[in-house]
Amino acid sequence: MTISGNTVTITTKGTYVLSGSLTNGQVVVNSSVEGKVRLVLNGATITNPSGAALVVTAADEAVVVLADGTTNTLTDGTGYDTTATDSPNAALFSMADLTIGGSGTLVVHGRTADGIATKDGLVILGGTITVDAVDDGIRGKDYIDVQGGTVSVTAGQDGLKSTNETDDTVGWIAVSTGSVTLTAGDDGIHAEGDLAIAGGTVTVAKSAEGIEGANIAISGGIVSITASDDGVNVSGGTSGQTQGGGGGGGMQDDGSLLGISGGTVIVNSSGDGLDSNGSTEITGGLIVVSGPSANNNGALDSNGGINVTGGTLIAAGSSGMAESPDATSTQGWLAATLTQSVAAGKTISIVSGDTVIASYTTLRTVSSVVFTSSAIQKGQTYDIYVGGSLAGEASGTYSAGGSISGASKLSTVTAGVATRGGGMGRP
Fold first, then answer.
1. DSSP secondary-structure letter at 332?
2. Weakly modelled stretches of the chain, pLDDT under 70
3. Which residues contact 375 (CB under 8 A, 6 or more apart)?
4. What are the b/e assignments for 274-306, b being 16+ CB within 10 Å?
5. Beta strands in 244-331 (DSSP E)
6. Are 395 and 373 contacting, i.e. CB atoms less than 8 angstroms apart?
7. pLDDT tens across 19-61, in order?
8. Can you give the pTM of this predicted structure?
9. Distance of alpha carbon 184 from alpha carbon 422, whole angstroms
10. How far apart are CA 277 and CA 233, in angstroms?
11. Which residues contact 321 (CB under 8 A, 6 or more apart)?
12. Among the listed residues 214, 208, 167, 211, the one whose alpha carbon sits nearest the alpha carbon of residue 192
């Protein structure tokens, strides 16, 4: 290890403990030997007014350990030059694979571009990590793999982002456990490759588009999305979107897949709720979609169709581009274009005889509802009521069961008969 002025440079593998404050300097890892460089942040505060605070220019692998009971802060400068190839553009920047773990706290301020960025992969194993950034919050070029910890990001652009689009095996993001909370000016999570959520809690508190990937698989966890545009957007980009053609949305199927097999997914979107430029497969889980009021989008939009074999889905939104599951779906479903719009804050109930099967409280004005669960039988009729209330156990604004005391009947629908949307609907 060498020290030159206010720059500390680590030149070989090993474990290094950083404590105290460096208020006008930088820590650099530049190791050309095989083996991990492990940095233990033990109450470290590093601020660099003219560049990145912590930079890994070379290493076989870099590991940042957040010491138990400590708070560590990394802050870069404002307006430094990031235009050259591989120039550091984050408060914590790495050219090598980077792993962050431990049980301490890391606070990162990205004041020129990103908060945390790697040119390879990033694994988060633990710790309490809070990032605010002018551009992207946390970016891993090859991948981001969240396996634990509590991650909170406020970003001017994307919250979590993986950018490698030249190799089909990378560019992915996965969350298997832990907690991720994102407030983003653009996408909450953006993967050029695939996106998988298998567990944990993912909350996109604010975004343009909530989560986006070439393919998206949700098999567990709790996912909550608020978006001013699409809530979930799947686009493989192999065929592109073109007017005309058959199937969902009057657009081409690009071969991508939105698959939901478990977990809870709650979407509140002003654009499309679930939007797939390919196909959508729902085999399990609970999905509650509060979609748009404007008729140029729909709560469900899938170019290659929607196949439902399990799970529970309620999707409410506008009727101009309303879309229904495919007739070949093995699980029963119903779709209703309401005889009158239902205002925000009202409860819509789906009733069979005297039994309330499901209730949903609107977040904005809606004129169509799609519902599927194991309780729906193809060919049977169901009544739609407005003015009731949810049952005691609710997920978001949805509950299985509920009450129609004081409610009025809006319409009667037959399960398996598709709703009729506008020019891009699936009649």
1. -
2. 237-250, 419-427
3. 332, 352, 357, 358
4. bbbbbbbbbbbbbbbbbbbbebebbbbbbbbbb
5. 257-260, 264-269, 274-276, 279-282, 286-290, 300-302, 306-308, 312-317
6. no
7. 999 999 999 999 999 999 999 999 999 999 999 999 999 999 9
8. 0.94
9. 32
10. 8
11. 249, 295, 296, 297, 298, 301, 421, 422, 423, 424, 425
12. 214
**Residue 393 pLDDT:** 85
CA of 400: how far to CAs of 173, 219, 404, in Å? 32, 21, 13
What pLDDT does residue 420 have? Answer: 55
pLDDT of residue 292: 94
State the pLDDT at residue 166.
86
d(CA 417, CA 427): 9
Which pLDDT score is estimated for 424? 38
Residue 394's alpha-carbon distances to 12, 43, 126, 329, 363, in angstroms, are: 55, 42, 31, 26, 15
At residue 326, the pLDDT reads 96
Which residue, among 3, 47, 56, has the nearest Cα to 25 in the 3D structure?
Answer: 47
Contact 405, 389 (CB under 8 A): yes
Neighbours of 33 (CB within 10 A): 12
Cβ neighbours of residue 2 under 8 Å, at least 6 residues apart? 8, 9, 11
3-state secondary structure of 250: helix
Q: What are 227's two structure tokens?
A: 């978006």
Alpha carbons 163 and 146: distance in angstroms, whole number:
16
Burial environment of residue 83 by CB neighbours within 10 A (0 to 12, 13 to 18, 19 or more): exposed
For residues 248 and 39, give the distance between their C-alpha atoms in angstroms, rounded to a whole number: 51
